[in-house]
Amino acid sequence: MFRVIVSHARRHPSLIPLFLIIGSGGIGAALYVMRLAVFNPDVCWDKKNNPEPWNKLAPNDQYKFYSVNVDYSKLKKDRPDF
Fold first, then answer.
1. Which of 47, 70, 68, 72 is nearest to 57 (CA)?
2. Which of 15, 28, 46, 67 has the most crowded Cβ, counting Cβ within 10 A?
3. pLDDT tens digits for 5-36?
């Protein structure tokens, strides 16, 4: 597959930016899915030691990718312990 891409790029140099943009988009999507699998509180990898990871979040933990106007370090606890 890589050999075919290189041969097309040698014959048609105008395809090089297309290959770079498509490749960087694929890498970015893979990194985002990996980030969701590792840092999202809805994903539970160890059900024996931590069956409900969403209950162990502190109110100042930021798990969203981007937050516009919320400063998570200044939030206080407003919910009961379970």
1. 72
2. 15
3. 888 888 998 988 999 999 999 999 999 999 88
CB neighbourhood size of 82 (10 A): 6
Taking alpha carbons only, the member of 55, 57, 60 closest to residue 71 is: 60
Amino acid found at 24: S
For residues 40-67, b (16+ Cβ closer than 10 Å) or e, as one string?
eeeeeeeeeeeeebeeeeeeeeeeeeee
Q: Where are the domains of the chain?
A: 1-39, 45-81
CB 23 within 8 A of CB 29: no
Determine the angle formed by the axes of helices 16-39 and 2-11, rounding to 10 degrees: 150
pTM equals 0.59
